[in-house]
Amino acid sequence: MSDVIDSDGFRANVGIVLMRGEGEVFLGRRTGGRGWQFPQGGVRVGEQLEEAALRELHEEIGVSRTDVELVGRTTRWLRTDFPPVTFAAISVRCALDRSSGGSCCD
């Protein structure tokens, strides 16, 4: 499947804010040590934003749909020029916490 690219050449993208507990968020170190970022990736043709976010979480850090719950998203597309993407921020919370013996982020 191919990614959604609009008429201006901007790629549709999701950025995922993965939260745990009170005030903890997941940042992944980029391969090669080129900085840190939230999990993110392109939206495929015909894919809903939430589906894309859950797919990217699994592809990038191995977190499955049952490990998280959707808690919010942006109400509009955001745009960056470098790289040329439009993105929606999706917020998810770990469904398991430390008190239950585990967490999706451990």
Brief account:
This protein is mainly beta and 106 residues long. Helices cover 12% and strands 36% of the residues. The chain has one helix at residues 49-61, and strands spanning 11-20, 24-25, 28-29, 36-37, 40-42, 68-73, 78-80, 85-94.
What does this structure look like?
The protein has 106 residues and is mostly beta strands. The protein has one domain: Nucleoside Triphosphate Pyrophosphohydrolase. The chain is 12% helix and 36% strand. The chain is built from 1 helix and 8 strands. Strands 1, 2, 5, 6, 7 and 8 form a 6-stranded mixed sheet that branches. The protein is globular, with a radius of gyration of 14 Å.
